[in-house]
Model the fold of this input.
Amino acid sequence: MRSLPVLALAVLLAACDVSAPLAEGATIGDTLDAAGDQRVTLVEAEVNVGGAHSRPPPDGSVYASFLFRIESLGPDARYDRFRFSATGADGESYPYTAGGRQPALASDRILPTGNSAEGWVSFEVPDDFQSLAISYDPPFEPAAESITFVVRAPEAARSGG
Done:
């Protein structure tokens, strides 16, 4: 079994406006507003190769895992871990994966006003990834604009340890 030290990710956050420049100096712990119905906070981020409760990724891959907290600002706000996706600097897309850190953020749940939920969202990505854009497309009707967290890989992850 291969080993890779758990690495913290350097994180920059930006609202999802493709034409807007990335926010300078934003860090883990920042919160973005999702259409006025939810607040989404990136609490923690890491790169890992699985653990006691998850399978290891295939050779050449790692899990990029993100601990999110979602707070409801309105009645019956829905959230869903499958509404998160990642896109690499090369344009390659990565869907949510059940591997990575646990407990995972719940799927297709409703939060009453003022309540919050927290859980991990993970993506299986190449171990030499340079950066990821983590997008959350809130499951609102009518459709709301996505929010995006832009993540740059730590040097140790790019060099394989």
User: Anything to note?
Assistant: Confidence is low (pLDDT under 50) at residues 1-26, 156-161. The two ends are 15 Å apart (CA to CA).
